[in-house]
Specification:
two-stranded antiparallel sheet, Type Iii Antifreeze Protein Isoform Hplc 12, 4 helices, RcpC_dom, alpha+beta, 2 domains
Amino acid sequence: MKKIVVFALIAALCAGVLLYYYLGNLEAQKQVKVEYEQVVVAATNIPAYTPITNEMVTFKQIPQGFAHPLAAHSVEEVVGFVTESALIEGEQILPTKLKQLGQTESGLSYIVPEGMRAVTVAVDEVSGVAGFIQRGDYVDVISYTSTSYDMTAAKPQQDEAATGEQTAAAGSSGGPSQGTTLIAAQNVCVAAVGTSLSSSGAVTEDGGPASYTSVTLFLSPEDAMRVIQGSRSGSIVLVMRASGDHTGNLQNPIVNDSLLEKAE
């Protein structure tokens, strides 16, 4: 009888040990190690069409598999880009939804230089250099208009004004109207030809330049007004510059009478 009791105690002890190890292994299986990944999120609310700076973004740890598959993982992927829509604080930033300044794929407004304006002018085969203009070329904008302003008297007036001397009303309007050709803007970069932002001009099936009816130019605000005034009050012609030629054009306006003087 005594042996049976001892055997029962030993069996109970073994069962307790096995139960202890079983419960320990079961608890270890429940402890799952969570792995995290670092993504870039908005540190504050960012309005639409805003260039992103370092201060606007931060990092956030998100359990692996729960982050957006297109989320940015480094600030270099987002800083300097422009938001296409508003971002709220803590939102994951997707580089595919950002625009980049200077890239034609982002649109015309993203390649306009700071302080400049994009202005489109109508052209034909003659005023548009027979279709040979390409994006990135430089042109002068020549305006032809009719005016009663005395250009011959205005030149001495401008010279005296530069030296601080005052003159009478020489160079004022009131004389006979004459056809006048003048420089509305010079050394102007071509932003686009027609509706294409391609750096190479379109070509026809036989390899020749394709026709276009408009050219978009990068102009300063003042030159933009001069070009628009010239196109509305008369006509304009684009004159292409040689590649690398950015010298100033100091040519004075030409009036009808000056052509007769040259003929004499």
